[in-house]
Amino acid sequence: MPDGPATFTIPGRWGDIIYALTVIRAYAAQTKQLQHLVISPQAKVLRPLLRIQPYLASVTVAQKYAPQTGDLGLQPYQVPVPDEHPRPVYHLGLRPELNADTVFKQPLPQTFGQNLVAEGGPHLDPDLTRPWLFLDHPLAQVVGPVIAHHGRGQRPVDLPDKYVVCQPWGTSTHQFYLAPADAQGQPDTGLLFDHLLGGDYDALRRTFTRKDIWTKILTGLKCPLIVVGSRDDLDTVRRLIPLDPKPQFLEPVSGLELAKLIYRAQAFIGAESVGAALAAGLKKPGILDTVFNNTVPVDQNSLTVLHLSVARPPRTTRGPQDVYDAALDYALMMLQRLGIR
C-alpha cells in the first residue's frame, strides 16, 4: 500500500486532467500526504487552478514534453519528470494499447484508475459524489472578480447576481469529436462516430442541428446567460444561435477564472468540454449534452447527462425524431426543476 508522496503525470487535454484529479485526490486521502503533479505545456492554463488544490503539493509544467499526433489524447503518454520530484512516478495519460477499447465507454476517472494500476499503483475507488475541485484556498480569490479577455486586453467582468454558464461545445484548441458547427449549423463530426459507435448518423445529422438544439434549450431562461469558450467558438455561437436578450460572451484567461465563473453560477449547460469537467468537479447542477459514456456518473448533486446532439437511437421502433424529442423534453424539465427556466 502507498504510504507517502508520489508524482503523477498526465499530458492530456484540459478536461482529462480535471477528471484525473479524482484519482490523485483518492491517493492523497489514502496516504494522508500531498501529491505532486506534472502536466504538459498544452495545459499550463490550468496551473493556477491546480496549484490551489489542497491535495497537491506542487504542479509542474514539463517544458521538454514534445507532443506528437495521436488518436487518443496527447502522446506520448509519459511526461518527463524532474529529478527532484518524489518517486514512485505514475503516468496516468491515455494510451492506445490500454485505453482504446474502453475510454469512450466508461467514466474517465475509472479509466485513469485503471492506468494507475497498470503503472504499479493501488486500485482506488474515488468518491465521485463529492466535489474534487476546491476554490476555498486563499490563493483562489473566489471573492475577487473574474478576469476575461475583452478585445485585446484582459479586465474584470461585471457579473449579475444570478446567471447560467453555457459552453455549447469544446474549445477548438483541444476538441476533436465535437467540432464547431459549420456555416449551415451542421455538426462537423466526420467519420469518428461511425468508427467508434458503429452507427449510421447521416439522417440524424441532416435532421437535427446543434443550432436547433441549443436555441431551444437556451431560449426562455430566467437567469442571464453567459456563454464561454474560445474566441472562434464564441463567434460561431453569435452567428448560429440567435438569442434575445443577447447573452454575455466571455473568454476566461485561465482555468481558474473559468472555474470561478462556473462556481458562482446557478447552473452549467453545455457539451463535453473543460467547462463540463469543471462543473462536474465543483458539483454544479445543470445539463450536459454528451456523445460518449466517459463522463462522471449522474448523482443528485451533479450534471444531468443527456445524449442530445448526436443521440444514438436505441434498437427499438422509435426513430431519431422520437429520441431527440424525448431528450429535449427531459432537458427542459430539468431546467425547470433547477428554477432557471
Unreliable stretches, pLDDT < 50, 5 or more residues? 171-208, 309-318
Morphology: globular
Q: What name is given to the CATH topology of the largest domain?
A: Rossmann fold
The class by helix and strand makeup works out as alpha/beta
Helix content: 25-40%
The succession of helices and strands, N to C, reads EHEHEEHHEEEHHHEHEHEHEEH
- Compute the number of strand runs: 12
| Strand adjacency order, main sheet | 6-5-9-8-7-10-11-12
Strand-residue proportion: 15-25%
CATH architectural grouping of the largest domain = 3-Layer(aba) Sandwich
Q: Please summarize the sheet with the most strands.
A: 8 strands, mixed
The N- and C-terminal alpha carbons lie at a distance of 49 Å
CATH class of the largest domain: Alpha Beta
- The tally of helices reads 11
Radius of gyration: 20 Å
Describe the structure.
- The longest helix has 18 residues, at 14-31.
- Residues 171-208 and 309-318 have low confidence and may be disordered.
- Helix 1 packs across helix 4 (108-118), helix 1 (14-31) packs parallel to helix 10 (274-282) and helix 9 (255-264) packs across helix 10.
- The protein has helices at residues 14-31, 47-50, 96-99, 108-118, 192-197, 202-207, 210-218, 231-240, 255-264, 274-282, 320-337; strands at residues 7-10, 35-39, 56-61, 89-91, 146-150, 153-157, 164-167, 225-228, 248-252, 267-271, 286-289, 303-306.
- The protein has 341 residues and is an alpha/beta fold.
- The strands form two sheets. Strands 6-5-9-8-7-10-11-12 form an eight-stranded mixed beta sheet, sandwiched between helices.
- The N and C termini lie far apart (49 Å).
- It contains eleven helices and twelve strands.
- It folds into two domains: 7-118, no CATH class; 138-337, Rossmann fold.
